[in-house]
Design goal:
5 helices, mainly alpha, elongated
Length: 145
Amino acid sequence: MKFFNARVWLIIFGVMVLLGGALNAIAAESVAQDAWGDVDGQALDVAIAVEVAWGSILAVWGASVIVIALSLQHPRGRARFGAISVVAVFLSQIVAVGALSNLGYGEGGGPGFAIAVPLIIAIITLISCIRDWNATTASTPEPAA
């Protein structure tokens, strides 16, 4: 198996987004308090709702990436879908954080190291997909271990 296998990296990317979103939704109260700073009452309730919605959307997006990566058999289609998905996920997060930062989101400091691993996985996934952008052969299932 080659290192830049688009299907494998799309599944890894999808699992990362699914788990990250699910954990964000599950720990919404803690995440909201950390990300929004000193809020209480109704403002805290709104912040928690934002985190639940944000996490839920990411989890569904991650699950969709996994299902589509497993369903698409032609490497060119999978690679093109994957490249577009990786860019869309990260651009949407940059826009969301940028828009919310004007309202006080993340005033306690940046994400730091927490963003490094997802960013590396996204870059590897994007490279894997770009390498197969014009692939012409149908993929064959890998033998079971």
